[in-house]
Design brief:
Elements (H helix, E strand, L loop, with lengths): L5 E2 L11 H6 L20 H4 L2 H9 L6 E4 L3 E2 L4 E5 L10 H7 L4 E6 L6 H14 L4 E6 L4 H8 L10 E5 L13 H7 L6 H13 L12 H7 L12 E4 L12 H8 L3 H8 L1 E2 L12 H4 L5 H11 L17
C-alpha cells in the first residue's frame, strides 16, 4: 500500500456546521472528522468509554456529538464507524475494534441514546458523507435505526457507496415502547383506539425521549419501515446478523408489524439488506455478538474488502474464523 498520509482526528469538542449548509457547499476534498483539541483529552472510545463514563462525559459536556476517531485519520484506509445501542457505550466494541486496529480508521458515533433519534441520524449522515474512502457502519440493536433512517431518507442516493453491518437490528419499533399486550389489544378494538393516545402521553411525560421514536406509529419508525417509505440506499451493501432466539426478539409482535407497516417482519428485514445465515449454536441472545465478536468480524472484513477492491491486500485475522 502507498505511504498513507495522516491528519489529526477531530476531537469531540470541535464545532460543526448545519447539514443544509454542508449540502450547499462547493464540492471539495472531504474533511477528516474530529480535529483534535489541545484543551481537552483525546477521546479513545474503545478503551475509556464504558456506560458509566460515557453517560458522565455526555451529561457533563466533555465531548460533542458526532463521530470520534480513535487515532489520527489515515488517508488510504477504509473507515469503520461503530454505533452502540440503547443503554450501551462505544466500549461494547472494544474487542472487535482491537482486531481491526491497523487495518482501518476506527471511529464511534457519540450520541445521546436516551434522546430523540432524528438529530443523531442527521449528524451521522453529515459526518459519514465527509469521510474520504470506503466507509463501513457497524451498528447494534437500536443503533441500527440511525443508518437505516438516513438510508431510507437518502432521496439523492448520496450514501449508496456506504456499507453497513447490522447486528440484531430493531425492526418496526420496540415492544417496550409499543405498550404491553393488554393495552395493544384494547387499542385495536374499535372505539378504544384512544388508549394508544393515552399510552403516548404517558411515554412523553414519564419515559426517556427516545421511546417516542421506538413506537411503531411514530414518524421515525414509519420513515424507515412504513408502506410509503423508500428502501434504504445502503441496502445493497448491508449485511444483517441475527443471534436472537426465535420469539425472543425485542421488536414488536409479528401481527403488529403487519398491521402497522403492511409487510411481514421478514419482508421489512429483506428491504434493509442481506440476512446472513447463523447456526443454531450461535443463537444465544440479543447481546451474543458483543460477547463473541468473531461472529461480526467476517462481515466487517468482507464489507471493507468489497469497498476497497484493488486498493488493499486481503486481510488476515489469525484466530478469528469465518461464521459457519
Amino acid at each position: 500500500m502507498r505511504d498513507a498520509k495522516t491528519t489529526p482526528a477531530r476531537d469531540a469538542n470541535a464545532g460543526r456546521g448545519s447539514p443544509r449548509a454542508a449540502e450547499r457547499a462547493p464540492v471539495a476534498p472531504p474533511r477528516p472528522p474530529h480535529a483534535r483539541s489541545s484543551s481537552r483529552p483525546v477521546v479513545v472510545p474503545w478503551r475509556n468509554l464504558d456506560r458509566r463514563s460515557y453517560r458522565a462525559a455526555l451529561c457533563g459536556g466533555s465531548f460533542r456529538l458526532g463521530i470520534a476517531l480513535e487515532e489520527p485519520f489515515v488517508y488510504g484506509r477504509p473507515t469503520v464507524v461503530f454505533i452502540h445501542g440503547s443503554g450501551g457505550s462505544p466500549g461494547q466494541f472494544a474487542e472487535l475494534a482491537g482486531t481491526l486496529r491497523g487495518h482501518a480508521n476506527l471511529g464511534a458515533l457519540l450520541y445521546d441514546d436516551t434522546a430523540r433519534l432524528a438529530p443523531a441520524a442527521a449528524v451521522l449522515r453529515e459526518e459519514v458523507l465527509s469521510l474520504r474512502g470506503p466507509v463501513v457502519v457497524v451498528a447494534y440493536s437500536i443503533g441500527t435505526l440511525l443508518p437505516a433512517y438516513i438510508g431510507a431518507t437518502d432521496r439523492e442516493g448520496r450514501l449508496r457507496e456506504v456499507a453497513a453491518v447490522y447486528v440484531n437490528p430493531l425492526i418496526g419499533g420496540s415492544r417496550y415502547a409499543d405498550a404491553d399486550s393488554a393495552l395493544a389489544l384494547l387499542g385495536d378494538v374499535p372505539g378504544l383506539s384512544w388508549l394508544h393516545g393515552v399510552k403516548r402521553a404517558i411515554q412523553r411525560v414519564f419515559f426517556p425521549s427516545i421511546v417516542q421514536d421506538l413506537t411503531p406509529e411514530g414518524d421515525f419508525q414509519q420513515s424507515i419501515f412504513g408502506w410509503r417509505s423508500r428502501a434504504p440506499s445502503l441496502a445493497a451493501r448491508t449485511a444483517i446478523l441475527f443471534t436472537e432466539r426465535p420469539g425472543k426478539e425485542p421488536d414488536i409482535r409479528e401481527d403488529r408489524v403487519r398491521k402497522l407497516f403492511g409487510r411481514s417482519r421478514r419482508e421489512l428485514v429483506e428491504r434493509m439488506g442481506t440476512i446472513v445465515p447463523v447456526g443454531s449454536a450461535h443463537r444465544t441472545g440479543h447481546a451474543a455478538p458483543l460477547a463473541y465478536p468473531e461472529l461480526v468480524l467476517p462481515l466487517v472484513v468482507t464489507a471493507i474488502e468489497t469497498g476497497s477492491a484493488n486498493r488493499h491486500p486481503p486481510m488476515s485475522f489469525p484466530g478469528h474464523p469465518p461464521v459457519v
